[in-house]
Structure formats: structure tokens, C-alpha cells
């Protein structure tokens, strides 16, 4: 919002430098983007501010979306008057630089107005003005240019001037070009078209509101007028429109048409339903002041359901509790009155009537904010609020996620945070299409559905890193997944490139299935859950033969394996590389956790004895089964079993494999003897022979 300091001072007499004024408003929530001093500004001849020519400045403010009332000189002047405890010069019907032209509400003014969609247009006002179209006075054009608005002609410039000055969007129709001298505020018909003022033909839909004459559409309500009835040098009489349109309707229409204007920016945030007639009266006064026209007697005001005044109660105790200290009654009443509210005494504090231009104020806490920001947050003490009750217990999932995060970080992975919204084609690779949850109003096609899996976001992050010459990428994410069956919490990881850091002392090795499987097993160990791995019922996005389903105590809990080449191509990754992924359902794992709690054991006091064996078994025999047989036949002194070699080739029969294992024995009570270990090894080898026809090499 760009405004001239001199324009602001017409409403409030504050003799401070523009920079100081901008800073004061910034401290009340209106961020000052810049202060510009143009080389030449034409002063208004009747300006209240008698400042020297050339001393003016353009203040550019960032206005938050919840404050449409501040998208005007009057709105910022109201804030300025409150800051400096100075009276606000408001529009009046007694002449002067802020004059209004009093208009009597009547029907016979030369145009018929029919309001057919009051739900989309709660108020519509119009007046007829006989005009002489020409260039605007230099001072008016200068103010528009300073605000970033291009001057067109005196009639159009006045409507833009009123929009910037008091925040009321307006539009002027050439009355001679309105069929039947009529205005109909109605919904568009299916397939109806209009050529807007920017020269573009636009197709309308029945949920859009339009301003039409007796035959065709003349404007898209709240967004832009049509080219057919625009004001030109030949125009003799205009109909001035000043209305209040439904914010949601304007916002959707503006978005669908791809058309953003100064008017739509105000209407879609919430226009003042009490301002349409004031807008007409201000425009009429300006047109007569600059000699551009004379309004015909009266104006039409279609207002079928006048809005009731909003009333709120502001309690002293609530105000003091939220701000941390009591604010004097005199300051509360001064601040709220200056901002346009009407405070009245109430048994607990004040009964407040909210002005129609403050569409953002609907609760008591909103009034507390108004008092707080103008009383001065810098005057409030830094205190902690008193607690009425004990805080609730933190969600148990927070501690669980912290454990998982620690395991993955220790394994050398980096945490990623990706979007919860993803595009539908990628989501379809990781879930049944009927289970995917679409978003009703997506920002773009990239954010069309809720993610059913964490992997699409991670793959996008991996591709982003690879496209920027990062060869080795190890990422994980902990977050929520959503399907039509509900929401669940999960963890996913993606690993591409080397298994570890490159070093001159060893050969380079790319990550493989067992690296990722080991990380998954580490998660299971940290969560006190026994994981098993099965190579059937694999998800379609994993490569057969290099993947497994993860079971937590025989319950499905996720999957791990190499991503299929088709999914890699869809994610923007080279199909000739291997990327390994895993995804676990943390909620499912939680329900399958071992009941036995973790215990801390002291370090062993007695030495261990290690024995290596090599056995020849069937090549299809899982190593896990071999380990199970060893444990069943071994005494309790066997503490670890580790495979360190697997060989097939010369000296080993076809269909058989040589498996080498290291068995470690230790007692917690004494040092074991060789005879005890020899007896244990003999029992183990006998059990392997009987169970698996194993032969020792």
C-alpha cells in the first residue's frame, strides 16, 4: 500500500518526518517497506497541510491479509491518530478538502437496479452523474501515480482515488451503452463470455457474480469491468457503482479467471458493508470539485438485509491476564474510541460495538490485541503466565520418534522434511488409487493429494541432491501418511551411492540391500521389537529379488529393498543406478513391541572363547535357520553367532554352499575350559548334521 505522507496528513495533523511516521506504524503491525522521495509532487491547492513543495514522501507499507481496512489512506490515518492521540478529520458534508456530497436515497435517477443475488452482493448502491470527460488535475494524477496507479481520465481517476482514499472500490459505466438503462446484479449463465477492460475475452461460470444490463454482462463483480461500457471521451453520463460483494465469491472468481485487481484485493479480504453510499458521496463531491461532472439528485441503495451491529465484551481481568498487566481504563477507552470502536461501561469491563470496517474483529481476544499493540508491547512486563492446572503428559510418540531419529542419525543418515501434499501420479505408485485422499482446493497439480507414503517426498529430495552433483545421498523422514483408512505415523529412508565415506585405504563400495536392512534392524532393536524379513507379498515399487517385507512379531510393519527402475524414472533419477529404500509403520511396531523391558547388564568379568566352523549345507537353507539350530543345541554360554564367509565353487558340490561362522562362548560366573567348549562344539555339529545334513569342512 503506497501513499503520500501529505495525503495522510489531510486526515490527521501530525508534524513528524515521514520516516518517523512510518516507523510508528510499523510498530503497530504495518511493516514499512520503503520511504521514497519523488523529485516532484504536485500539491493539492486546498490541502490542509501547508508544506513546501517537494518535501513530500511516498510511504510503502506491507498490509497483512486480515486488515483490509488498512488498505486505504483513511485506514492508516485512523491508526496514526490513535498513535499520536490526535483527532481524525473524517469525511463531512460541509465542504472542504474531505467533502461529501449528500445524496438522497431515491429511485428516479435514470437507471434501474435489480439485485438478483443478495447472497453474493449484500449491498449495491449506484448514482448517475452527468460528466465532461477529460484529463485529471495535476494534483490528483500525481497522487495516483505516487500510489502506483496509472491516470486514465478524470472520471476513472476519481473512482481510483476514492478506492485508495477510503478503501471503497468503485466502477463507472457509460449509461448510454447500458441496454435498457438497467443494471442487474446476477449470477453468470453457463458459457457466458465478457471482454474485460484488459481486452481479454473471459468465459464465466454460474457460480460467478456479474453486473449486467438488460441484454448482456457488463462487468465481473468485484474484479473488473467490461470493455463495452467503459468510460471514453464520448461519454456524457455515467452510472457510478459502489457495492459490497461476498469475499469468497470474489476470491474464487479472481483465482479462476487469473485476474487480480486493486478492487478484488479488497473485496476478497472483506469490504466495509457500511461504506458504499459514503463512496458515492465522496466520488460525487470530487467530480464536482474538479469540474468533471454533476450528480443527478439522489442515489439507489439496495440493502435488503441490513447487518446488525456486532457487540463484544472486553473484560478487565481478561485484558490484564493476557497482557500481563492492567491497562488504565482511560487508555483502553481512548485507544478503542480512536480506532472507531464504541466502548460502553459494562459490569466486568466494557461493551464494545465493532465498526463495520473492522471485519477482522470477532472475539474478545481481538480487542485485547487492539489495546495491546497501541498501548505498546514494549511497555508490557516480561512475565510467565500463571498455570491453572498441570500440563498434560507429552505424547508418547514424541519419545519414540526421538529414539528412531537418534538411531538413523547415528547410522549416517540426514533428516529431511518434505511436503505433506504431493502430486497424484507419484502417489499412485505407492498406494491403491482408491485409497488416496485428494485435496479439494490444491495450490497446484504438484500438491493435489495427501501423501500415502513418505517415500515420494524423500525421492524428490534425493533427486534434488543428485541434480546438484551430490553423489552419495542418505536421507530419512519421520512423519504422517494419510489414506482413506486413516492417518498413521511412519519412518522412511532412502540411500543411494556409497555405503560409507570414501577413503584411500579401501575400495569404494556402493550401498546394498544388507546396509539398509541393517539400519532397519537397528530401529527394531532400539524399539525393542523383533523384526523378521519375508520375500513375498512385496510392494509393487520394489525390485523382486532385492527386497523384503518387514514383520514385527509376525505382524506387517513395512518393507525394505531396491526401488524399481520405473519408479526411479518417475522420480527423476537415473534408472541405471541402485537406490535402496525402506518404510516402517511406527504405529504398527508400537503394538508389536516386546513386553520385556530393556535391562542394563554389567560388562563381562571373564574372558570369552571363540571357535570358527565351516559347514557345507544346501544353498537354499537360510542362515537364520542355521543360527536357530545352533542356539537350540548350544549351552547357555554361547553369546554370539556371526557369519563371516559364504563360498560356492571348486570343492563344493552343486546345490551346496560353504558357510563359515564364528561362535563366541562366555560365562558370567567363571572362566570356561577348553573341554567345555569342545563338548559344546561337538553337540552343535551333531545337531547341524542331523537337522540339515551339514558336513564340516
Write up this protein:
The strands form eight sheets. A seven-stranded mixed beta sheet has the order 19-22-23-27-26-25-24, sandwiched between helices. Strands 4-7-10-11-12 form a five-stranded mixed beta sheet. Strands 5, 6, 13, 14 and 15 form a five-stranded antiparallel beta sheet that branches. α4 crosses α5, α12 packs antiparallel against α15 and α18 crosses α19. The chain contains 19 helices and 31 strands. The chain folds into five domains: 82 residues, Phenylalanyl-tRNA Synthetase, Chain B, domain 1 (2-Layer Sandwich); 191 residues, 3-Layer(bba) Sandwich (Phenylalanyl-tRNA Synthetase, Chain B, domain 3), CATH 3.50.40; 69 residues, Phenylalanyl-tRNA Synthetase, Chain B, domain 1 (2-Layer Sandwich); 196 residues, 2-Layer Sandwich (BirA Bifunctional Protein, domain 2), CATH 3.30.930; 88 residues, Ferrodoxin-fold anticodon-binding domain (Alpha-Beta Plaits, 2-Layer Sandwich), CATH 3.30.70. Helices cover 28% and strands 25% of the residues. It is α+β, with helices and mostly antiparallel strands.
Amino acid at each position: 500500500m503506497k501513499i503520500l505522507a501529505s495525503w495522510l496528513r489531510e486526515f490527521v495533523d501530525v508534524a513528524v518526518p515521514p520516516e518517523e511516521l512510518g516507523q510508528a506504524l510499523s510498530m503497530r503491525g504495518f511493516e514499512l517497506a520503503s520511504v521514497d522521495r519523488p523529485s516532484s509532487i504536485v500539491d493539492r491547492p486546498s490541502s490542509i497541510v501547508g508544506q513546501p513543495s517537494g518535501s513530500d514522501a511516498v510511504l510503502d507499507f506491507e498490509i497483512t491479509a486480515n486488515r483490509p481496512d488498512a488498505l486505504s489512506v483513511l485506514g492508516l490515518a485512523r491508526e496514526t491518530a490513535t498513535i499520536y492521540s490526535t483527532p481524525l478529520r473524517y469525511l463531512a458534508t460541509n465542504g472542504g478538502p474531505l467533502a461529501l456530497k449528500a445524496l438522497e436515497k431515491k429511485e428516479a435517477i435514470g437507471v434501474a437496479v435489480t439485485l438478483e443475488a443478495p447472497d453474493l452482493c449484500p449491498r449495491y448502491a449506484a448514482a448517475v452523474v452527468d460528466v465532461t470527460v477529460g484529463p485529471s488535475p495535476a494534483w490528483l494524477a500525481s497522487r495516483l501515480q505516487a500510489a502506483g496507479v496509472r491516470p486514465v481520465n478524470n472520471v476513472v481517476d476519481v473512482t481510483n482515488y476514492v478506492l485508495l482514499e477510503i478503501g471503497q472500490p468503485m466502477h463507472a459505466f457509460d449509461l448510454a451503452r447500458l441496454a435498457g438503462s438497467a443494471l442487474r446484479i446476477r449470477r453468470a449463465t453457463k458459457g457466458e463470455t465478457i471482454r474485460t477492460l484488459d481486452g481479454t475475452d473471459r468465459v464465466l461460470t454460474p457460480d460467478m457474480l456479474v453486473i449486467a444490463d438488460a441484454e448482456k454482462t457488463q462487468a465481473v463483480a468485484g474484479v473488473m469491468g467490461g470493455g463495452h461500457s467503459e468510460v471514453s471521451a464520448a461519454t456524457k453520463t455515467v452510472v457510478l457503482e459502489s457495492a459490497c460483494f461476498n469475499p469468497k465469491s470474489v476470491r474464487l472468481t479472481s483465482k479462476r479467471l487469473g485476474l487480480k485487481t486493486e478492487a478484488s484485493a479488497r473485496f476478497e479480504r472483506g469490504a466495509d458493508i457500511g461504506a458504499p453510499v459514503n463512496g458515492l458521496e465522496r466520488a460525487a463531491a470530487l467530480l464536482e470539485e474538479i469540474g468533471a461532472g454533476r450528480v443527478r439528485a439522489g442515489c439507489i441503495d439496495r440493502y435488503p438485509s441490513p447487518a446488525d451491529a456486532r457487540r463484544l465484551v472486553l473484560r478487565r481481568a481478561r485484558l490484564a491476564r493476557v497482557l500481563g498487566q492492567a491497562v488504565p481504563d482511560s487508555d483502553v477507552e481512548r485507544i478503542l474510541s480512536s480506532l472507531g470502536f464504541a466502548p460502553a461501561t459494562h459490569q466486568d469491563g466494557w461493551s464494545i460495538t465493532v465498526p463495520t470496517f473492522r471485519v477482522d474483529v470477532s472475539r474478545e481476544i481481538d480487542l485485547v490485541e487492539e489495546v495491546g499493540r497501541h498501548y505498546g508491547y514494549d511497555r508490557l512486563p516480561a512475565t510467565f503466565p500463571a498455570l491453572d492446572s498441570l500440563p498434560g503428559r507429552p505424547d508418547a510418540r514424541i519419545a519414540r520418534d526421538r529414539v528412531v531419529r537418534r538411531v538413523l542419525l547415528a547410522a549416517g543418515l540426514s533428516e529431511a522434511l518434505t511436503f505433506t501434499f504431493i502430486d497424484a501420479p507419484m502417489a499412485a505408485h505407492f498406494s491403491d488409487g482408491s485409497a488416496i485422499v485428494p485435496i479439494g482446493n490444491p495450490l497446484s497439480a504438484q500438491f493435489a493429494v495427501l501423501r500415502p507414503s513418505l517415500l515420494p517426498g524423500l525421492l524428490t529430495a534425493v533427486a534434488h541432491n543428485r541434480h546438484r552433483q551430490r553423489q552419495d545421498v542418505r536421507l530419512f523422514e519421520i512423519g504422517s501418511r494419510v489414506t482413506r483408512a486413516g492417518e498413521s505415523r511412519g519412518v522412511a529412508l532412502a540411500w543411494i551411492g556409497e555405503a560409507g565415506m570414501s577413503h584411500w585405504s579401501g575400495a569404494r563400495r556402493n550401498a546394498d540391500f544388507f546396509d539398509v536392512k541393517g539400519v532397519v534392524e537397528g530401529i527394531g532393536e532400539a524399539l525393542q521389537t523383533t523384526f523378521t524379513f519375508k520375500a513375498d507379498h512385496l510392494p509393487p515399487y520394489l525390485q523382486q529379488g532385492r527386497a523384503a517385507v518387514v514383520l514385527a512379531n509376525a505382524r506387517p510393519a513395512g518393507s525394505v529393498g531396491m526401488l524399481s527402475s520405473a519408479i526411479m524414472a518417475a522420480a527423476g533419477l537415473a534408472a541405471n543406478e541402485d537406490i535402496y529404500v525402506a518404510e516402517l509403520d511406527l504405529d504398527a511396531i508400537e503394538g508389536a513391541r516386546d513386553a520385556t523391558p530393556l535391562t542394563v547388564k554389567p560388562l563381562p568379568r571373564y574372558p570369552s572363547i571363540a571357535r570358527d566352523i565351516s559347514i557345507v549345507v544346501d544353498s537354499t537353507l537360510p542362515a537364520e535357520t542355521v543360527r536357530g539350530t545352533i542356539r537350540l543345541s548350544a549351552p547357555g554360554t554361547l553369546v554370539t553367532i556371526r557369519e563371516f564367509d559364504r563360498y560356492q565353487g571348486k570343492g563344493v558340490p552343486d546345490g551346496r554352499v560353504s558357510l563359515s561362522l564364528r561362535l563366541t562362548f562366555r560365562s558370567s560366573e567363571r572362566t570356561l575350559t577348553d573341554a567345555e567348549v569342545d563338548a559344546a562344539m561337538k553337540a552343535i555339529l551333531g545337531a547341524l548334521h542331523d537337522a540339515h545334513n551339514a558336513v564340516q569342512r
